[in-house]
Fold this sequence. Notes:
By secondary structure, this protein is of the alpha+beta class. It has helices at residues 13-16, 44-48, 70-78, 83-104, 160-165, 167-185, 206-210, 226-236, 258-263, 273-283, 290-300, 317-321, 323-329, 336-359, and strands spanning 2-7, 32-36, 61-67, 107-110, 117-120, 126-133, 139-148, 190-192, 198-200.
Amino acid sequence: MLRILTRRSNDVTYFTSDRALELDGVRDGGPGWWLRGAGNPRDEEVVASVLSGTERSAVKGYDLVFAAPRPISILIALSPENARGVVAAHRESVRASVDYLEDRALVVRDRRGGEDRDERGTWGNIVSFTHGVNRHAEPHLHDHVLVGARPLDARSVLDGRALFAHSLAADALYRSTLRFELSRRTPWTSWRSFEGVEHVVELDEGYRALWGGHFVQRGAKIEARREEIVAMWAKDQSRFEPIGCLRAPARGPHDFDEHSFASSFEGSSGVTRRHIVQAWANAARFGQRASDTVASIDEIYPELRESRGVRETSLSIARARMTAQVRERGPRPLDGRALQEWSHRSRERGDRSDRSDRSR
């Protein structure tokens, strides 16, 4: 899950003071790592410099909180021998999602000449902090990604509306990439149900109940060493009650749920590129590399290749669904010939439908 929190202060002690000892030995280095930039991520002055704004805006930056689905977080407690692979998969997925936000959501409004234009922007430095527990010592793998409100070389802050508008697409892309990376880096396989629930193959649902993450009170922030947190998790497991595993769908040639994809647009007044990215990533049951998702969408919807910000080009539901093409090809890039063949068949079906309506 992705949450976007607005930062109105350059106080970064919350991030630099948390050593996240619970993940010592299962991640590269300390909790702080640079997606772009350099310096000591525990140096408050260095990290605070990432958050940059303007005199006219109170917003200094944003905290992008990427949290792994609970079953995947639980793996760092149940499968310590694969915890390093789980954390690496998570970080790679965070990077992919931030790249998407920078490419499609990072825009600056330019109102010169009486006309609004969205100018592309680029973040300067980007720093992130990886943590492995919540305030109640449950396994909770998540990252805090800090970005500035003022893009590099820009005179004004970014359009916050665009950042929030693209958050659902970025979240779906993060989770799809995580499902893909998890199966590539560990023996575990993650899948997404038609109802939108993330699961791990052969992981008993009783563990989700054991570490549910729901409490009446927030609790005080803890800092436990790796050996201490492992002992806590082992003690928790003495209360485990099996519920059973959900059966995962059979793996197919494409592993793409065209019904989930098509139903995502039901009731929409217009479908934009960010809606298609979200639907496509969610329909990839076992995940997909982010670059492949983006390449597929740009190939199938060439008219949306330059869409970004909040004023994206809209498509009709029928155009967005591309039902026949998705069923035939699955989530992978199409060559030009295949696209032309699909378009020709689609026009033929449309002609037959029009003739049928006129005959009634």
